Amino acid sequence: MIVQIVRHGETNENRQKILQGQLDSQLNDLGRRQAQTVALALKDERFTHAYSSDLIRAKDTAEAILQYHQVYLVTMKELREKSFGDAEGLPIGTKVKNRGESVAQFRARVLGWWTKVMSEHLSNDLFEEKPTILLVVSHGGFIRTLLEALTTQDGFSFEAKSHIGHIPNTGVTTIQVSDVSRGQIISCGDDSHLSTFGEQEAALKINVDELLTA
C-alpha cells in the first residue's frame, strides 16, 4: 500500500509567520497556484481513497488534486494541525495562558489516526483487485510528527536520499506501507513540482507551526 501525504498550499499566515494551528485560514493566491501545480504533478497517480483535514486550507488543496481523480474525499478532524490554544492567530513567541494540545497529546492523536486508518485499509487490501493508494492532505506539524513517530519504530526505514526536514507547502511525502508498524519512507516533503516558480514565489523555508510541534 502506498500513502502520499501532501501539505496544504500557502496561506497569508504562513507568509506572515503567524501561528495557525486549528485556525481555519484560507489559501492565498500563491497557495492556490501551488495546489493546482501539485495537482498536475499527481494527476497520473491512481488514488483509491482520499483523506483531508477538515480545515479549509487543506480541504481546498485536496479538492484541487482530486479534480483529476474520481475519488470521494473524506475530511477528518484528526488530521488537523496541532492546537496552539490562545496563541492561534498570533505571532510566534506571544505569551498566552492556554497553549492548546501538549506535544504528547498531539503525537497520540497523530498515531491514533495512523493506526486506525492504516489498519482498516491493510485488512481490506487483501480483497482489493488493484493496489491501494491513499491521498492524505494535512499540515506541516502533523506530517513531521507522524514521520518522527514512525521512524522511532524499528519497522520503518528511509530510502538513502530521504530524511525528515522541513515540510514545504504542497510538499509530497510518500510512504510504502507493509503493516501499521512496518514500511519505508520513499520521499519527504518533495516540492520539485514548484521548481518553475520565481524566487519571490519560492516555497517558504520556515513553518512556525511545525517548529512548535517538536
TrEMBL record:
Keyword match Zinc-finger: no
Residues annotated as the enzyme's active site: 8 (tele-phosphohistidine intermediate), 81 (proton donor/acceptor)
What keywords are annotated for this sequence in UniProt? Hydrolase
The UniProt annotation places substrate binding at 7-14, 57
Protein's UniProt keywords contain Hydrolase: yes
Q: Which GO terms describe its cellular component?
A: cytosol
- What is an example of a GO molecular function annotated in this UniProt entry? fructose-2,6-bisphosphate 2-phosphatase activity
The UniProt entry, under Pfam families, shows: His_Phos_1
GO BP terms in the entry: negative regulation of glycolytic process; regulation of pentose-phosphate shunt
Q: CDD domains given for it?
A: HP_PGM_like (cd07067)
Q: What PANTHER family does UniProt report for this protein, alphabetically? A: FRUCTOSE-2,6-BISPHOSPHATASE TIGAR
Q: Mind telling me what this protein is named? A: Phosphoglycerate mutase
Native species: Serendipita indica (strain DSM 11827) (Root endophyte fungus)
